[in-house]
Amino acid sequence: MKFSEELIKKKGKNFKAGEIIFEENDPANEMYILISGSVGIHKRINDAYKLLIELKAGDMFGEMALIDNKPRSARAVAISSSLLFPVTENLLQQLIQTNSEFTLRLVKILSNRLREANYQITALLKGDRKNIVKSNLATFANIHGKPLNNGYVVGLQPFLKWAILRAGLDLKDIQEAINQLIRDRMVNRLPNDPGKLFVLDSLGKYDMEAS
């Protein structure tokens, strides 16, 4: 959805790269729509923060704390200089009641996050490293991939760097899982550039065999 430049100028919030937008367990009084830039959502695990997802322009975040009136479940950090549009609880209710485009987008975001969480939980319970990497690769391709035919082209090294922070696996495990996906023909190396992967669009769809 779009907001007028005047409204964004008046209500928008700017964050520099590396600046914390909110901390895990902070009280919440607003969610955000990312107008420009990129934001990372991090979860504290033991003594370190693990990157869960990288958001891009047009994404929303922080909505769950408004919906269930509980503290923030994760930390949000600006990866690059970012412009955010804050949405308070009252404004959220107004948008849901009056703006079908906003409501549909919010429902899709919540549905996708729930689907990904279910996929990750299933994979973790089974100890299936291939499915963990499969889920992460599908997410990475949707965020960072370049569309091509029925899939996306992604850089292998950028994905490895991204997945190490997020998948809870070491580099060797991730590389072995990618090789399995290549053997299963879910992923292909580009013949003219082995440093890039072609990821089928269907990779991110729910696989009944993983349930």
Molecular structure report:
The strands form 3 sheets. Strands 1-8-3-6 form a 4-stranded antiparallel sheet. A 4-stranded antiparallel sheet has the order 2-7-4-5. A 4-stranded antiparallel sheet has the order 9-10-12-11. The two termini are 35 Å apart. Strand 9 and strand 10 form a beta hairpin. The chain is 43% helix and 30% strand. It contains 7 helices and 12 strands. It is of the alpha+beta class and 211 residues long. Helix 4 (100-126) runs antiparallel to helix 5.
Give the helices and strands, then pairings.
Elements: H1 5-11, E1 13-15, E2 20-22, E3 30-36, E4 38-45, E5 48-56, E6 60-61, H2 63-68, E7 75-78, E8 82-88, H3 89-98, H4 100-126, H5 129-144, E9 146-148, E10 151-155, H6 156-166, H7 171-183, E11 187-190, E12 193-200
Antiparallel strand pairs: 1-8, 2-7, 3-6, 3-8, 4-5, 4-7, 9-10, 10-12, 11-12
Largest sheet: 4 strands, antiparallel
Kindly report the spatial arrangement of strands forming the biggest sheet. Answer: 1-8-3-6
Number of helices: 7
Computed over alpha carbons, the radius of gyration is: 18 Å
> What is the β-strand count?
12
- Tell me the distance between the termini: 35 Å
Order of SSEs: HEEEEEEHEEHHHEEHHEE
The overall average pLDDT, rounded, is 84
